[in-house]
């Protein structure tokens, strides 16, 4: 699933490519992708609208419209947004927005876990309740070390599972949680309450740094992610542990191992991470 760096890359591409364009026509090829309202209403409400400011909230994209309504998109596991010339056939297209100046924006989704919502008058909590339950944005200026410490206070379970909890922090998923824990020398199964002051500080800085670094490389194309024009991200070669089972740890040379944590494949160095 695309995580914060991948979704942020797409957001920036959308700002550059489609902001200010008029939606001339909407073609719905798979009605299940339109969550709210009905497909017929969705078309009526979206056509002839101008795409305005584009925001990201966690792994969601929020596209403002000139009507003061919004289009919310979630890519799910395999969703993509592809910008191309109007009329171009894009594999697994579910919803196509034909734009002015002979352009189109296609929402594709092989597995079908993504979706689109039309949100009237910024009633996000009413239409997309999961948006209201998202935790803080880790790259916002108000996400301080002190705030991170407060969030961790009295938390139980496993630290990797907690980092992936979207109600704890928005946008962090399986890949970047593992990378931040490796850089911090923290075992993925550690209890949050067991972390020492210095470990919390390391984790805070490494989490932010790995997210920013991944954005600078336009994300990781581990499975299906591509940017708005179909290019893969460039961060995968820079991943230290994710997907590296059997390889030598870049820090100590020990063999990287894989295990299941919360039902997700998890890579770690048993020597470096305690």
How many beta-strand segments?
11
- Can you summarize the main beta sheet? 5 strands, mixed
Q: Using the coordinates above, name the CATH class of the largest domain.
A: Alpha Beta
**CATH superfamily caption of the largest domain:** MutM-like, N-terminal
CATH fold-level name of the largest domain:
N-terminal domain of MutM-like DNA repair proteins
Please give the alpha-carbon distance between the first and last residues. Answer: 27 Å
Strands in their spatial order, largest beta sheet: 2-9-5-4-3
Low-confidence stretches: none
- State the secondary-structure class: alpha+beta
Helix content: 25-40%
Number of domains: 2
Map the helices and strands.
Blueprint: H1 4-17, E1 23-28, E2 34-36, H2 39-46, E3 51-57, E4 60-65, E5 70-74, E6 79-85, E7 93-99, E8 103-109, E9 115-119, H3 124-127, H4 129-132, H5 145-152, H6 159-164, H7 174-184, H8 197-216, E10 257-261, E11 264-268
Parallel strand pairs: 2-9
Antiparallel strand pairs: 1-7, 3-4, 4-5, 5-9, 6-8, 7-8, 10-11
